Amino acid sequence: MAQVSDLLALAEADARSGPPPTDTSYPKRRLLSGITLNSLALGGAMGLSMGIMFLLVSLLVSLAGVSPVLGFFRILFPGFTPDTFTGIFLGFAWTALYGFLLGLILGLVYNSLVRLGAFEGGSFEHYA
C-alpha cells in the first residue's frame, strides 16, 4: 500500500510544480549505476592509449636521435631498447601497465567519492 501512496504523492507533486527531483523518485543504486565509472574499462583504455603514445614518442625520438629521452626511457622501463622489436614491445608493455594501473586507481577513487557523497546525503544531480 505504501507504493500506491508514493505514486499518488509523485503525481500530485508533478501536477503542482513539474516532475520531482530525481533523488526522490529513483533508488540510490539505480542512480549510482548511471554516474559511476567502469574502473577496468577506464584502466584498459588508458593503458592502450598510453602505450600507443609511447610507441609514437619512442619512434619520433629514435628518428631524431635524442639520447637523453632514450636514456630516461631505459631507466623507466626495464628492458627497453629502441634498437630491437623486443625492446620496444617491452617499453609498450610497461607503459600499458602503468596506464592501466593509473586508470584503475582513478576510477576507483572517483567511484568511492561519488558513493561517499551520495550516501552522505549529497544530491545526485550535482554529478550528472
Strand content: under 5%
- Helix-strand pattern, N to C? HHHHHH
Q: Report the end-to-end length measured between terminal Cα atoms.
A: 32 Å
Number of domains: 1
Q: Mean of the pLDDT scores? A: 78
Give the tally of β-strands: 0
Shape: rod-shaped
Radius of gyration: 24 Å
Low-confidence stretches: none
Estimated structural class: mainly alpha
Secondary structure: helix percent: over 70%
Number of helices: 6
Largest sheet: none
Notes on the structure:
The two termini are 32 Å apart. The protein is mostly helical and 128 residues long. It has one domain (37-126). The protein has six helices and no strands. It has helices spanning 2-17, 22-25, 28-35, 39-64, 67-76, 85-119. The protein is rod-shaped. α4 runs antiparallel to α6. Helix content is 77%, strand content 0%. The mean pLDDT is 78.
List the helices and strands and how they pair.
Elements: H1 2-17, H2 22-25, H3 28-35, H4 39-64, H5 67-76, H6 85-119
List keywords for this structure.
single chain, rod-shaped, mainly alpha, 128 residues
Summarize it:
With 128 residues, this protein is an all-alpha fold. It has helices spanning 2-17, 22-25, 28-35, 39-64, 67-76, 85-119. The chain has one domain (37-126).
